[in-house]
Specification:
79% helix; 0% strand
């Protein structure tokens, strides 16, 4: 366990964010490798895998319910020096991860084809996306447990083990992708099914390694079968914090589904170009997102320790770092988008669409960085309802105008990207306003940590709830 209630906040951020970033980047690279090898199968395969990957946003919504609830509550417990409560939350979250994983596996296999039919441009794309999803579902189901384990470690200030496990799992995926997709060395090419299977095998291996780490090395939080019996009060604590954050990812799923819907009349090349551009955009967002995620446990532990001034300082310094990072990537996307997008498709039309998408959408990078930071701070505060509100606002300010524009004569796909920039900027402004309001309510008169009295209240509500 690492105490984040003392020491330089910038040092904590810069120490924690690189391993977080490496872990996320390796996962994104894994997805890009899948797209790279699938691209040899044609635009329909690329569009199918990219569109199917959007279903991951919906599954990630459920993962965030567990991950955010686990991080916030364990970080608060660490700040209060309440190890028993941290262990209880961890084991109750593991129970939920098993239930969510089983639900995802069954629902995913049953509904994959219906989902692809609702958004795909043609039958070939439907078939490719459905096949990929069915083979990819075991990976998504198992990631609930790995999400809880990684979140518990992050809440205690430990991020390196999760990063190493993720990097190894991605290396396995990258090694398997050409073998299973293209049949390298075996002569048995599985196509898009191989992409899903490679990911599932890699996730199984990573989960086993992380489980061994918890059994052999980790000491602050640990598996305790006696605490796996459902306890409604503590399950409610996790869900109260996690559900709004999960709703944020569900909003992202709706947002992406609308994009695919309004692009489908432009054909598979348009959907493939957007899919490639969106994956690359996600990759270049990772450094800023890693910095923002590092701020969450720092804020959470200081909320538990009742140190409001340090929570505010965490926000200010995180925003400065994130903004610098995002401006750098925005300049790169404007001047040299081909450096970021090279090699993902041989189809000129597909790549021209990807270039156009990245150039326009990069104008909202600074705003997106603010959204990342505010979201992480709300998680640290243990109140994620404002995050859901701002995300829902973005979906409505984007989706309704986008669908309406798509029905008008002369509709062009770049209108979709400009509308996205406007909606994201509005969401960023709303997020900052909501966070400032939360700070005024929760942190205005919080006592310094050294003077805070022991807390016996429900850890879902940090000590700052009733101003002291």
């Amino acid at each position: 366990m690492k105490d984040l209630t003392n020491g330089s906040i910038v040092r904590h951020i810069l120490t924690m964010s690189p391993p977080i970033m490496v872990g996320m980047v390796t996962i994104m690279i894994c997805q890009l490798v899948d797209l790279y090898f699938v691209s040899s199968l044609g635009d329909a395969a690329v569009a199918g895998v990219a569109a199917a990957g959007n279903a991951g946003f919906l599954v990630n919504a459920f993962m965030q319910v567990l991950g955010v609830g686990t991080v916030a509550l364990i970080a608060h417990a660490v700040g209060r020096k309440d190890r028993p409560d941290a262990n209880l939350i961890f084991n109750q979250a593991i129970l939920l991860s098993v239930l969510f994983g089983l639900l995802t596996l069954v629902a995913g296999i049953a509904l994959s084809r219906a989902y692809m039919r609702s958004i795909a441009a043609d039958q070939a794309t439907i078939e490719a996306g459905t096949t990929y999803l069915i083979w990819f579902m075991p990976a998504l189901a198992l990631q609930f447990a790995t999400q809880v384990m990684g979140s518990a470690l992050r809440a205690t200030g430990i991020v390196r083990p999760t990063m190493l496990v993720q990097a190894f799992a991605v290396a396995v995926n990258i090694a398997l992708a050409p073998v299973l997709i293209s049949g390298w060395g075996t002569g048995h090419a599985l196509g898009v099914a191989g992409a899903g299977l490679a990911s599932s095998i890699a996730v199984v291996i990573g989960a086993v390694i992380l489980l061994v780490y918890f059994r052999k090395v980790e000491r602050y939080v640990a598996f305790n079968p006696a605490q796996w019996r459902p306890q409604s009060r503590h399950l409610k604590r996790i869900l109260n914090v996690g559900l709004p954050a999960g709703g944020e990812f569900a909003m992202m799923f709706i947002f992406m589904a609308v994009v695919y819907y309004v692009l489908r009349d432009f054909g598979a090349a348009a959907q493939a170009g957007f899919g490639i551009g969106q994956r690359v955009l996600g990759l270049i967002h990772m450094p800023a997102l890693a910095v923002a995620l590092a701020a969450g446990p720092i804020a959470g532990q200081n909320v538990g320790a009742a140190n409001g001034a340090r929570v505010r300082e965490t926000f200010v310094k995180t925003v400065l770092i994130v903004t610098i990072v995002m401006i750098g990537f925005m300049i790169l996307a404007q001047l040299k988008p081909e450096l970021l997008l090279a090699g993902f498709s041989n189809d000129r039309e597909t790549m021209e669409i990807a270039y156009l998408f990245l150039r326009i959408i990069s104008f909202n990078m600074v705003a997106q960085g603010l959204i990342f930071t505010c979201s992480s701070m709300f998680q640290g505060l243990g109140n994620t309802k404002p995050v859901l509100l701002s995300s829902a606002t973005r979906v409505f300010t984007y989706s309704l105008p986008a669908i309406w524009l798509s029905t008008r004569p002369g509709f062009r796909m770049e209108y979709v990207w400009y509308l996205s920039v406007a909606a994201t900027t509005f969401q960023a402004a709303l997020s900052v306003w909501l966070l400032r309001r939360e700070f005024r309510k929760r942190l205005a008169t919080v006592r310094p940590a050294a003077a805070a009295a022991p807390v016996e209240a429900d850890p879902v509500t940090p000590p700052a709830r009733a101003p002291a």
